[in-house]
């Protein structure tokens, strides 16, 4: 009864949770959509604000340009420019090639013209907020591209810089005088026509309290003037944003070439306006969004002070507050740099509006979900709990071993179908339980028998692999000793022939000193051949004994690794020569290890045979093997230049019975045996790396001194 109630309550809880999850999903979808709609709305507004910001900046730039054009077109200003030109260094009525000094009167009139122009330019500066104004002189009757340009006036911040020239030539010597704006107000009291002719120019500079400076005043604006027309550009310089405009002065002058009066461009005025925070704050209040100017993903000016600004795909973290942003590229930018007008809308307003909308959605959806849950719970309690109790009672009886009592269900619905199926299942379980009990009695014994058979089959395969290896070793040794034994037999036959000739000459009494001397020499050479051949045979047999015994007698020995590997290579020499395989061995002779000689033989021979069979495939190759001490371990590095292996083969190379040439006699146990010898018997590590057509690389690390392991070799493999 409690179980039925528990299941019923769980189903009710599950259904309620499902409905809640569904409601949550609906709320989530509607919330996300609402947020996206709000975000799109703000993005559209931000796009409009960004365009308005760009238009405002470009309109302001145009206004600055029109202001300078209007200024340069004033008649009185043209007259002042004409006077400045006539007394300046770039115009001479005698022609541009005539060079002479500028006299004191000309220099004073030049200064007077500069002061009149400064007075007029200051009015433009105050009205339009130029941070810097530069008046340049050009050579009349020449195109700007061909003309030499010299500065005359620079007004920057609260300082005035006036240039003084000493010759009528574009390479004239010059001086720069600096004085503050504060001392400029009473300049007109200092000049009259008579005083100009009575005093030298230095007198008037002293009255102005102008100080001659040695430092040059940088005028990068000269690079912007490319032709005789007016122009305007946005320029980024030293992390600041400038609106730079310029306009030429056209005056009537006498052309030295033909003494005719004509119009000529003789000067150029350039104004620089630094866009400051106050300017952008004013624009920000107009368009209703924070604004900034961006260059190379860096904010160089903004409507609010900023400590940090980082940009992501969707937001600009401005003073650690995320803002939606829209970029609008400015035109008329110097060197076509990427400078953008950026409008920024705080996401706080987006969040506030979204929270209100989402809260309304949550209230509506949760009310609907609550009504559905109440109705579903009522239906479940009426139609689910009672049938479940009966089914659970039947299940409990089956658990208790009662397979005779059926479940009776009076309702005609899915539960009655379940009850019929349960009763059928109960009957089948009862019928099959007896047969299952009988089968279980014999299953365990069958599993044991099959396991023993598998172990015996595996050991037989291991033994076959070992016997095949030993057979190859015997065959190789027999082939190797055949040559020295044949040489010894040939030498013995020759010696027997010499003895027969000696007997015959002794019987015939034909012995002579010369004959005996030749006999001794030939006998000595023959016996030498016999001795060397038998020693070589003994050496091969001893190597064979060492290798053969090492495979059968598994005891720990302390031995020279170099000598043992040499014995292994001698044993494998016939196979190596037949397969045209060269081995480069780099093992120090002083390395001595305590290990199983048979284990080392199996490791080395399996690696070499694996390279011959799988790596070279009968085409010959090169093997390099090195060994060195690394702390208390021996590191063996083995590599060949064979065909290599792909990642799939490398990942399975140590698996038992895995081979790529199963149809050609491969058993798949060679590298499996090598892995188990290294990791289990010797307590080491082995790693193989390979790529197609890049050979095989193997690194083995084992202890220099191996401790005895009470495990038979066969069980290890």
Explain what the structure shows.
By secondary structure, this protein is of the alpha+beta class. Among the domains are: 73-275, no CATH class; 279-350, no CATH class; 553-716, Histidine kinase-like ATPase, C-terminal domain (Heat Shock Protein 90, 2-Layer Sandwich). 53% of the residues lie in helices and 21% in strands. The protein is built from 15 helices and 21 strands. Helix 1 (2-72) crosses helix 8 (385-399) and helix 10 (513-552) crosses helix 11 (561-578). Mean pLDDT is 80; it is low at 712-717.
Key features of this structure:
single chain, 717 residues, alpha+beta, Heat Shock Protein 90, eight-stranded antiparallel β-sheet, 15 helices, 53% helix, 21% strand, disordered C terminus
Kindly provide the radius of gyration, computed on alpha-carbon positions and rounded to a whole number of angstroms: 53 Å
- Major β-sheet profile: 8 strands, antiparallel
What is the count of DSSP helices, taking H or I runs of 4+ residues?
15
Mean pLDDT: 80
Secondary-structure-based class equals alpha+beta
Q: What distance separates the N and C termini?
A: 59 Å
Give the overall form: flat
Sequence of strands across the biggest β-sheet = 5-4-3-2-1-8-7-6
Give the number of DSSP strands. 21
The helix fraction, in percent, is 40-55%
% residues in beta strands: 15-25%
